Amino acid sequence: xxxxxxxxxxxxxxxxxxxxxxxFAIIAISTSFVVFLTFSLKLVKEEDNQIxxxxxxxxxxxxxxxxxxxxxxxxxxxxITAYYDSAFLPDNIKLEMPYAKDEVTRVRSYSEDGFMVYxxxxxxxxxxxxxxxxxxxxxxxxxxxxxxxxLSISTLLMLFLVGILSVSTKRMFDELMSPVVELSQQLRDExxxxxxxxxxxxxxxxxxxxxxxxxxxxxxxxxxQEMMFAKYASHELKTPIAIISGAANLQAMKEEDVEFQxxxxxxxxxxxxxxxxxxxxxxxxxxxxxxxxxxxxxAVNEQAIPISELSKKAKLGVEVELVIxxxxxxxxxxxxxxMILKNIVNNSIRFTExxxxxxxxxxxxxxVQDSGTGLSDKNxxxxxxxxxxxxxxxxxxxxxxxxxxxxNTNGCIASLIKKSR
Length: 421
Description:
Blueprint: H1 2-10, H2 13-56, H3 59-68, E1 73-75, E2 80-83, H4 91-94, E3 103-107, E4 115-124, E5 127-136, H5 147-188, H6 203-253, H7 258-286, E6 298-299, H8 307-311, E7 318-324, E8 329-330, H9 334-350, E9 355-361, E10 365-370, H10 380-397, E11 399-406, E12 411-418
Parallel strand pairs: 7-9
Antiparallel strand pairs: 1-2, 2-5, 3-4, 4-5, 6-8, 9-10, 10-12, 11-12
Helix pairs in contact: 2-5, 6-7, 6-10, 9-10
GO molecular function, one term: phosphorelay sensor kinase activity
Catalytic activity: ATP + protein L-histidine = ADP + protein N-phospho-L-histidine
Transmembrane segments: 20-39, 149-167
């Protein structure tokens, strides 16, 4: 458990930012060091080239000095010595012999004891005289007095650039991750129903925010539908239970009345059958069984759908008519079809004071038209609550459901259309 918390703490945005800046700093320092070392070596090499040219330029002076006063060696400058016999060369220079003729030979150029030798020959009084011009590579200064200053300035410049890079990286990371931090804080707020980010946020995070808002709205909608569904299921189960309980109590009041007893038993049986159908349908919905993938169909006729059961709640003056197309077969089981029609017709009856309610049933289309008040802001929610079970059943069995105004009768049209596979 402790390990999990430690890993979580290490992966928060602040620590990720520190690690990112640290890595950028290491990369910047390493890169700067490589560049600095490369340029330093290049400068040293160029300095050696200048020294070699400087050494070669004293060839003529050395020959003139010898012709004026022949000697084994002579200092032609404070830093350059000319030797006219290899036997008189210093021991450290002798160890590196032989030297290429008419070329400058570099020995240990990057070392403090490095030196250069230019070897050639010239004629003096008809004799060929060898000439060795020597110089220590570190005794001649070409601005070396400022070398420490150059190193210091280069180091400070490198550190300054690393600092600028670190600050820039931190600001860029903060700008990039601030919307994520903002969203994370909003997610911790359980009461928040909408997430927002600034306009300057990158498009991907805006898209993520839009999806979060969509999921939040979907969650709220699903929760509301589940509550409505639970309320409806409770009503559908409580009603037959109340009928059964009432009929049983009435039976006990008139035990000698045979006709009365038979009537109550019939009420109990009908209520039990209705409750059984309701339970089976609700369980089918809860299990999310997709009947749209099944090829089984059920024949439908007027005997299968008693119009009297659908119209018994209709107000006086409201006529309920059922029209079934010939050879109609549906992918709905009959109990499901009855419950769908019952809910739609009950909603139509609720908002129809006079006129008619017409039910059309065909193989791929079912409609219920009424002459009621139609849809409005006032009764839109009531329609939705009553028809929630219809929508759920249609989704399970592969049908679509739509409720809209009937422009011809000022009522509503509830349409069920079978979805094509």
